[in-house]
Amino acid sequence: MTTGPILEVRDLAVSFATDEGVVQAVDGVSFDLRAGEVLAVVGESGCGKSVTAMTLLGLTRSPNARFAGTAHYGQTELIGASEEELRSVRGAEIAMVFQGAMAALNPVQRIGKQIAEQIQAHEDVSDADARDRSIALLERVGIPRARDRIDAYPFEFSGGMRQRVMIALALSCDPKVLIADEPTTALHVTIQAQILERFRELREQTNAALILVTHDLGVVAEIADRVAVMYAGRIVEHGTLDEIFYDPRHPYTWGLLGSIARVDKPRPARLPTIAGLPPSLAHRPTGCHLRPRCPHEFADCVKVPPLEARGPGAGDHTDRCWLPPESKVELREVAPGEIGLRPKEAVPATSTGGPGDA
Amino acid sequence: MARFVVRRLLAMIAVLFAISVVTFAIFNVIPNSDPAQRLAGRNQTPGQLEAIRRQWGFDQPVYVQYFRTMEKILTGDVVSYSNQIDVDREILQDIPRTFSLAIGAAIMWMSFAVAIGLYTAVKAGRLADRVLTVLALVGISMPVFWVGALMNYYLGFKWKIFPNGGYVPLTQDPLDWAYHLILPWTALSLLFIGVYSRVLRSNVLDTINDDYVRTARAKGLSERRVMLRHVLRNSLIPIVTLWGLDFAAVIGGGAILTETVFDLQGVGQYAAESVSQLDIPPVLTIVMFAAFFVVALNTIVDILYAALDPRIRLT
Fold it and tell me: Other CB atoms closer than 10 Å to residue B23's CB: what's the count?
């Protein structure tokens, strides 16, 4: 018997009522997560990846937020769950590592206390036992002299050490799912590598699943099993790591891959970028949201493309692009053997008509 | 820490010196403030005045007068010009009354302000928040002499629920002591509750959006624990400064109105009477006494600050 997904997210939608209108931050996001699997959610800032992660734990706490869709964790429905239900899941079953460890730890509470507090919130253990476990956790994430450092305050730690404390915190109750929101952003590359190593170990030791929210494709290539690419609140492409990196089917993914700085190629005069800006989530273009920025736009693009397997042999590799699958291999090539998104001007405009406020 | 305290003590001496000079100078330029007139009484003769001037040293240059007065204050020999009563004895008599008022009120206003500030922040935008916001503004806007007088009249004089002013020493009867002080405590606290609860509300609303509060929630802590251990603790830090300063001000005679309305015979009331009689020695002594408490409490607040927020180092 194969193990089913431990987390099933279906048609998750989050919108915020603002003065500028309804901001659709997350729009119909669906994915499965299996034990021991690393799912990377990638996309530009503001594409809804953090909100998706936050919403799974009920941490999107705006009175103006509206939620739709479901997220099954085992028997528990997370979307719309009571605080009581969420509390027993948070930290214990699904733990979160936040971005910006500088601010994510309480500045006036000792490190050890912050970890012990989480353990004691879920398990009936004595202060001394919680303390011993906290020390063991700090050692596990590679804090030297953990026994001495446990009574330190966050400001006495470096950024990398704080991020490791965040991870120790998240691991403290052996969660089944770890959600890491930009865990390595603003960290030195060597620290980044160490953090990723911790995640890898964790997965081997406890078979926990990891949702890695990031915009860093280098990190994704390092650790992910599957990748979901998000753009303007939607998943535009979803596949295995190899499928996304070697056979990307969505122009936005091409653009992302094309804009990575590579050390194995001669340095270009300018790093390629995707022309234009992501749309405001309050005024998204109709149809395919990438349409105004996409050089391959054509008549069909005014309709919303569903996220589905396209073309023969796609299997579980899904995307939201109307382009004929057989033409994509040619279209995505900006140079021999190199994937990227061509500049929009270079392509004759086939269809600029259609409704939309772009 | 030791260096910090020493530095503060030196600063305190400087502050006390500056304040005493300024106060002394002010009283020397106020018209009709000649102390000899006061000492001589109503039926004075020019000869008497002259004798008093010589006897008390008012014929000396101003700086000599200043140093002699200060010497008397510091050695405790200073007497009032209007009734020749020993100022220190008078102040010592008033201190328990002022302390009783100040300490009780400070505890009262802080407790209510924390409760109301936290509650309104949690209920921000809802009816309870709006009602309490209006009440806080009412509390801030009501002058203490008016509220105090109303309380005294209705609760004390008319309905006789509380005593109509006066003071009973704590050592004599603790219950009666508190009973006599409930109205003054309340009258004095209203303004502070209004201000503090508003400040705390906005602090809490700021803190509540901090990343570590989100972390605390993600840990699966109860809402109560998140609010008390993570939000309130961090929101209280700025309030503590206010508290220390206001408390010092109240002890140093800042509760003049409350003391007068409820006839508590405290330091503030003594100060008010002395000022109205242009009586320099008690005024100067009380000003020094007040300045001492402001500086001392400021130092204590800073030490408390470092305890509340370990990032702060005392230097």
Answer: 18
CA distance B219 to chain A (A): 4
Q: In the predicted model, is pLDDT for residue B121 greater than 70? A: yes
Residue A184 has pLDDT above 90, yes or no: no
Quick: pLDDT tens for B124-152.
889 999 999 999 999 899 888 899 889 98
Closest CA to B66 of B284, B293, B288: B284
Name the helix (H) or strand (E) containing B295: helix B280-308
Q: Are residues A237 and A254 in contact, defined by beta-carbon separation less than 8 angstroms? A: no
Residue span(s) of chain B under CATH 1.10.3720.10 come to 92-308
Q: How many alpha carbons fall within 13 Å on the CB side of residue A302?
A: 9
ipTM for this prediction: 0.84
For chain A, domains (ranges, CATH) are 7-224 (3.40.50.300), 254-346 (no CATH)
Rounded to whole angstroms, the Cα distance separating B31 from B10 reads 35
Q: Write the CA distances from B96 to A196, B102, B168, B170, B268, integer angstroms.
A: 65, 10, 10, 9, 12
Is A108's CB within 8 Å of B311's CB?
A: yes
Q: Residue B274: beta bridge partners?
A: none
Listed in order, strand segments (DSSP E) in A241-317 are: 308-309
Name every residue whose Cβ is closer than 8 Å to that of residue B50 and which is 6 or more positions away in sequence: none
Confidence (pLDDT) at A319:
93
- Asked if A252 contacts A229 with a C-beta cutoff of 8 angstroms, the reply is yes
Chain A CA closest to residue B126: A63
B113 CA: distance to closest CA in chain A (Å): 22
Strand A65-73's sheet: what is its strand order?
A21-33, A7-18, A65-73, A76-77
Amino acid at A265: K
pLDDT score of A347 more than 60: no
Q: What is the model's pLDDT at position B35?
A: 78
How does the average pLDDT of chain A come out, rounded?
Answer: 87
pLDDT for A67:
94
The closest CB to that of B214, out of A59, A87, A169, belongs to A59
Tokens of A63: 């009175």
Q: Are A221 and A38 in contact (CB under 8 A)?
A: no
- Tell me which architecture the domain covering B92-308 has in CATH: Orthogonal Bundle (1.10)
Per-residue pLDDT, averaged over B304-311, amounts to 83
CB A160 within 8 A of CB A191: yes
Give the amino acid at B171. T
**Contact check, Cβ <8 Å, B212/A57:** no
The reported pLDDT for the residue numbered A3 is 67
Indicate the residue type of A46.
Answer: G
| Backbone Cα Rg of chain B | 24
Spatial contact of A200 and A184, defined as CB atoms under 8 Å apart: no
Predicted pLDDT of residue A2: 53
pTM of the model: 0.80
Backbone angles phi, psi at B20, to 5 degrees: -65, -40
Are the Cβ atoms of B230 and A109 closer than 8 angstroms?
yes
pLDDT at A206 over 70: yes
Tell whether A137 is within 8 A of chain B (Cβ).
Answer: no
* Per-residue pLDDT tens over the stretch B47-68: 888 888 888 888 888 888 888 8
Give A267's DSSP letter: P
Contacts of B234 in chain A (CB under 8 A): 106-108
